Amino acid sequence: MFLLVRRAAAVIAAGVMVSGFAVNGGASAQTSAPGEAGALQAATLREAAEAKGVFVGAAVNNGRLGDGTYSSIASTQFSSVTAENAMKWDATEPSRGSFNYSGGDRLVEFARANDQQVYGHTLVWHSQLPSWVSNGGLSAGDLRNAMNNHITNLANHYEGSVAYWDVVNEAFDEDGSRRDNSVFQRTLGDGYIAEAFRTADAADPNAKLCINDYNIEGINAKSDGLYNLVRSLLSQGVPIDCVGFQSHLILDQIPSSFQANLQRFADLGLELIITELDIRMRLPADAAKLERQGQQFASVTRTCLAVSACAGITVWGVSDRDSWVPGTFPGEGAATLYDENLRPKPAFNGMLTALGGTTGPGPDPDPASCTANYTVTDRWNSGSVVRVTVTTGASLSGWTVTFALPAGSVTGSWNAQVGQSGTAVTATNASHNSTVAVGGSFSFGFQTNSGATYTPPTVSLNGTACAPA
Ligand code: G3I
């Protein structure tokens, strides 16, 4: 019989909300079946996940936030964000005692603007350390001080902003023993893990504190090692709340014991998170592999939903263009939900469908599923130039935009084929801009033979009137 620590017990008993996100409530949180009254027709991962009581997150690369399509996917599809690199030790304390929070703060701001949870990654890890920590030059006492100081400063700085912390990352070797190439393990011994959790708890008593690792999704030597450690930490009253299963998976090799493994950790009274999901394949990708990948993203999603303590799933990278996989496993990739052009893949549909959402139109279609900006950018006595920018709430493969031109005739166009019949103007995509991701935008322009001024007309996308942007 294990002593459930206060933190973990409270989380499970109360289904605690963190930043508005509840732990997956299991059967009670399931939405009704399609066709029933109130059947979920969510078109975004975020809406669908929320209805199931789980969060859906993405690892975000700050350097990509300037790309409108990237940031709009990151904000509209995901309810949680993890800094892919910006909160790691090398980024936040490059030299001893000198802290740089700029990257992490940027992500916290992004999350706040988009009503998202922030998942903190990571406080103590043997990798991505600055050389003053990794070079082994610090004595045990000094390294202990440095570790505790690092944890305290980060957890204090992000208190109230970060809902979860990966306090200790990748502490195990594949055989279930403690990782021997970790400077913390080598210098401080086994006790550094409990100490790191106690320090994090003192600095931010409200954040949920997780231990995170890879290749622990199935029941195997490594997950056994972690299970035994977590059980022992709980019995000592160490404040640990959650286990992160990174889930860097390989196509067609999803561990069959995934759910049973999650369940045994859940039975200890802990919350579980799938923290870094991706499913890589040998390149080139083809339709059959992408289809199977979609089924496997769906299956991992259903695995989380089947275990009520599973609080959420984070995908490691918004798109295949951003993924760490090709850089680490040459010849492999295509591991995320969106392709290199940020178009949703079957993996996206698989995850969305498993969450109870649908890619088709629902019974209550969102009247503002697009927005449009119609601007006369230039005007003279006998002519004008118009730019139309449309942002879509659905993914598109080909588009038709219509509106009534209040004055004159179209005499030329770019980025679209533009035709006119009376005042009715129809613009269809060019070959280079036919596909647009959910939340993405496209623009086209045309010239007319009238310089009259007028109120911008209503613009429709594929027959649906767009709200003015
Ligand atoms: O910041 C430097 C830049 O100054 C330099 O010019 C450039 C040259 O290569 O490197 C930049 O650092 C890179 C860093 O990402 C930031 O972009 C590193 O080379 C690169 O190795 C590093 O990769 C990250 C990797 O962790 C490092 O271990 C990946 O982006 C990140 O996705 C990956 O994430 C880890 C999780 O944190 C833990 N679990 C496994 C997962 C995948 O490896």
Structure commentary:
This protein has 469 residues and is of the alpha/beta class. It has two domains: 7-354, TIM Barrel (Alpha-Beta Barrel), CATH 3.20.20.80; 367-468, Immunoglobulin-like (Sandwich). The protein has helices spanning 6-14, 45-52, 68-77, 89-92, 102-113, 131-134, 140-157, 183-188, 192-203, 221-235, 258-266, 287-306, 325-328, 346-354; strands at residues 17-18, 21-22, 55-60, 80-83, 117-125, 162-169, 208-213, 242-245, 248-250, 271-282, 310-315, 332-333, 370-380, 383-392, 396-397, 400-404, 410-414, 416-421, 424-429, 435-436, 441-448, 460-461, 464-465, 467-468. The strands form five sheets. It has an eight-stranded parallel barrel with strand order 3-4-5-6-7-8-10-11, surrounded by seven helices. Strands 17-21-14-13-24 form a five-stranded mixed sheet, with no helix packed on it. It has a five-stranded antiparallel sheet with strand order 18-19-16-22-23, with no helix packed on it. It starts with 5 loop residues before the first helix and ends with a strand. Mean pLDDT is 89; it is low at 1-22, 25-40 and 361-368. The structure holds ligand G3I.
